[in-house]
Amino acid sequence: MEELITANVATNLYWLGRNLKRANETLHKISKAYDDIIDVDIDAGRKLYKTFNIELEYDGAVDFLQQAILGEHSANILELTANARESAIISRHRLDSDAFGEIIELHALFDSITKTDREIDYKLIDHAHSLISEIWGTFSKREHTNKSDLFIKMGKLVEEADLRIRFNKDEAITVTVIEEIDAIVKVLSEDEEPVKQTQSQNSEENDLMGVVNTKINQVIIEEV
Question: Rounded CA gap, 37 and 115, in Å?
């Protein structure tokens, strides 16, 4: 852990992990909501985006895909992949060339839709899933877990915890994810106290994520 890394690069590696995880998981949920809109519940897309505090409006299943991926809101896939691309550019010297190229390709995949009349469909979403899997696969092939890798992994895990809390996933697994975050934090900052999940934190999403995010900020800003 003697690797020197600036706070700016560390922050971008962390958000690279978060945005990639958010994009991948959101795409999965978009696919399911799309099917539900067709067969089960026309409001499935609205219910999905309410968990992101977004009032999404659409006319039918096809328009839902358009609004979810390119709509004017903070959770659209184009913006998530654009943010990942920007973080990758800033931290370019900390990434493998293959991973960097795949991140650029991922954003270009969605950006290209804005320049053509191409219809958004399952092929596009499947292609995006494949690219993200390749990106994570490239990260996992590194022989050593260095500081750069830990910031990316930490971002991925924090996003997983956030999504699990939003969607009321199994609490025991969520606690395990938070323990993994804490283990990384302790490696990056031996002087900091571990993240503790109290009873009150279990019942309040904002409290729990506030504790986690405070810990992340201490590591990135104070220790890097």
Answer: 27
pLDDT digits (tens, 9 = 90+) for 6-53: 889 999 999 999 999 999 999 999 999 999 999 999 999 999 999 999
3-class state of residue 198 by DSSP: coil
Q: DSSP states of 90-141 as a string? A: HTGGGS-HHHHHHHHHHHHHHHGGGGS-PPP-HHHHHHHHHHHHHHHHHHHT
∠112-114-120 over CA atoms, to 5°? 80
Please name which of 112, 71, 106 lies closest in space to residue 88, comparing C-alpha atoms. 106
Between CA 39 and CA 41 the distance in angstroms is 7
- Separation of alpha carbons 134 and 175, rounded Å: 27
Structure tokens given for 173: 């697994």
